[in-house]
Each structure stands twice: as structure tokens, then as C-alpha cells.
Amino acid sequence: MAAQASPAEELSVSDAAATTTKPGLNSATATNGNLNQNSDDSDDDAEDAALGAETGAAKKKKKRKPRKKKKNPTAQSDPPRVLISQLFPSKVYPKGEEVEYVDENRYRTTNEEKRHLDNLNSDFLNDYRHAAEAHRQTRQWAQKNIKPGQTLTEIANGIEDSVRALVGHQGLEEGDAQIAGMGFPTGLSINHCAAHYTPNAGNKMVLQQDDVMKVDIGVHVNGKIVDSAFTLAFNPRYDPLLEAVKAATNEGIKHAGIDARLGEIGGYIQEVMESYEIELDGTTYPIKSIRNLNGHTILPYSIHGTKSVPIVKSNDQTKMEEGDVFAIETFGSTGNGYVHEEGEVSHYARRSDAPKVDLRLSSAKSLLNVINKNFGTLPWCRRYLDRLGQEKYLLGLNNLVQNGIVEAYPPLVDKKGSYTAQFEHTILIRPTVKEVISRGDDF
């Protein structure tokens, strides 16, 4: 989920089938469901004798077949619905890509004290890897199945249904969505819209063959949020744009690590991004870094932390530190390379630093109670309120926004007619290595 630079930053930047009654069980047994071997045998003997008297031939008893034990699934279904915890019964989940530190941090890889600190974080790491595996399996399914002609609502629901199924929390009971599930609403931003767009109820927008769509997915387990995004384009003419942004993201990841300065990382990203150009309809466009969009740290139950990773060179001397979790995301554009807020809002989050306000609207009080119990400080969208059965909540929602309790995140767009792309990974700055937790075979 994109972090927009503040004005000050802009200046510095310049289951399973049911059991059925088996043939051969009498109706009483099938009804009661309790099998008593002695009574069953005597009933069968009496039945056999009666049949022998009528037909002159004894009927052989049928042997009951032992019930087969259900085996744990070993592969994911299509669409993804098998719990990640069932696919990994040991509850030890795959690591992301581990990258050793270099230069003056090289010692960390072999340092016994640092390895000990890493081992103390086993629960933290396992939650993150659980969320990351759910993310990988969901997005890889999405990449294969998203096609032009689908509605954005259909696409978003398919992704979110998969995430909730894989982590085993549907989010319909109070507090369930805060145990595991969506880390934020699925972003489906098209063409000149770079971020923060997901369909609201009634949205009938259809994905077109010539669209460039950013798919931004957040998955969390116990508040550990994996934030990773990719871009889909069905027309190969957009390949240079996608290649530029993917290369820039990987460059940012390459230079990330303990003591790396954020402004310098932005410079590396910009250099790679802006070495690309794209020809569209006979006109060549330079690919620009969107200078007022940033990567960011991720905190428990909070998608935007206190540090920002610019995607253009800046004088920010803030360092990455041991224990930080960063979303390294880059955005490229054929337009101005600058976004502004425009359009109907879908993304919201309760502010962790929200002021205490005596709310006068009963609808606002009621809605805030729903938000607190279901989302806490995790971002959500209006579709999630609809899913919980909330109705006629817009007045109360707007009141919460006006009072500074809830933050609204409007869509972020470049100039009309331009095209934007995004790639993103979550990295853990561990004591011994940096782990690109969301890395997969896809990107």
C-alpha cells in the first residue's frame, strides 16, 4: 500500500465431503449413528435366517469396509482454499529470499550473538512467513486467472476470498479479521491511477485488454503485514514500463540493509527507473519515478510506519536499522511523475493517534464501535463494511473522517492518458541477513 510523501518530504525530494450412510447399515443404525457390534451381528443373523427360510439359500454377510482416514492435502486447490497451516502441518513456513549483508555488516552473518537474537524472533518470523506464503499462493493464482472482461469487484473478491481461506479467518465475527486476513484492501489501480483504488459497492468497471493494472495485496497474521504488489498488462507494448519498475524495485532491495541511508536508496532507484523509456503510438516517453510516492516501514497492525523510502534521490540521512520491516515499492509513470488525490474514496483506516472526540452522531458512534472491534488500526474499505452487514453508514463515516478519527485515502492519480506501474516487496532487516519475505518464483 503506497505511502504518499508529505509536503515537507516533497520539498526535500524535489472442507471436505460429508459422511453418507453406507449400504448394508440398517436404518436404525444410520439414524442413531452409534454402531454396537453385538446388536448389529444379531440383527444380521436374524435377517439371514429369515432370508434363508424364504429363498432356501443363506445369504452371506457383507463385510464392512473400514473407513478411510482423510489425508491432509498436499497441494493447493484452484482457486486457493486449502489452509496454509494444512499444507505445512509442522507450522514451519518457508523463508523468503535471504540476502547476506556485505561490507562492514558482513560479520553479522557469522556472529553468534546476532544469530541468537535472530532465534529469539522465531514467532515473529513464523507469523511473517505464514502471511508471506498466503500472499505468494494468492497472487500467483491471481496472475494466472485475472483476464480482461472481468469486473474489478470480481477480481477483488477473488483475491480477498483466497487470502481469508488460506489463513482460516473469514473476518465475519468480531475480532476475527484482527487475528489474520487482509492487511489492507486489495488495490486495483488502472492506467494513470497509481494507488489506493478498490471498487466500492455498485462499481461496474471492467478490466480492458489495453489496461495497465496495479495489484496491491496485503496479508497479515497476528498483525504482521506482508505488503507486495505487481502490475499486469496484457498488451506487450507496455513491457518496458513494467521492466523499468521491477528493475528499480530490485535495485532498492539490493541497496537496503542495516545503516543504509534512505535518501541514497532513492537515488539508486531513480537512476535505474529513469534509464528506461517507452514508445507508445509513435511517441517516446521517458519513464519517471513518481516523486511523491514512497516505500515505508511497516509496524504491527499499521501499514505505514515512521520511515519513508523515497524513489528519487533526496538528502534524507535516516538509516535503516536492525529489526525494521520495510515495504520497498516503486512507481514509474509516462506522465508527470507526480500524483494527486482524485476520485471516490474507498480506503480508510482508524488513526492510532486519533483525538478523543465527543461524537454527537449516533451513526458515527455505532460505526466507530464496528471499526474498533473488527479492524482496529488495519486499513479497510467500504466493501468490508457491506460484508459485515452495515447499512447507511456514509454519514457516520464522513463524520469520523471530519473529526480526525478515521483517515481517508483517496485514489492517487497522475495526468489522464498516462500509464503507471508498481512493483513491491516486504523485507525484514534481520540481525544476520535481510530477508525478502514476499519473494516468490513470480518476481
Percent in strands: 15-25%
Distance between the termini: 17 Å
Main β-sheet description: 8 strands, antiparallel
CATH architecture of the domain at 346-409: Orthogonal Bundle
What's the β-strand tally? Answer: 19
Radius of gyration: 27 Å
Could you name the CATH class of the domain at 346-409? Answer: Mainly Alpha
Helix count, DSSP H or I runs of 4 or more residues: 12
Helix content: 25-40%
Q: Look up the CATH topology of the domain at 346-409.
A: Arc Repressor Mutant, subunit A
Coarse structural class:
alpha+beta
Shape: globular
Account of the 3D structure:
Helix content is about 30%, strand content about 20%. Strand 7 and strand 8 form a beta hairpin. Helix 6 packs antiparallel against helix 7 (about 150-165) and helix 10 crosses helix 12 (about 395-400). The protein has helices at about 5-15, 25-30, 35-55, 85, 110-120, 120-145, 150-165, 240-255, 260-275, 360-375, 380-385, 395-400, and strands at about 5, 95-100, 180-190, 195, 210-220, 225-235, 275-280, 285, 290, 295, 310, 325-335, 340, 345-350, 380, 405-410, 410-415, 420-430, 435. It is α+β, with helices and mostly antiparallel strands. It has twelve helices and 19 strands. The chain has a domain at about 345-410: Arc Repressor Mutant, subunit A (Orthogonal Bundle). Strands 1, 2, 9, 10, 11, 12, 18 and 19 form an eight-stranded antiparallel beta sheet that branches.
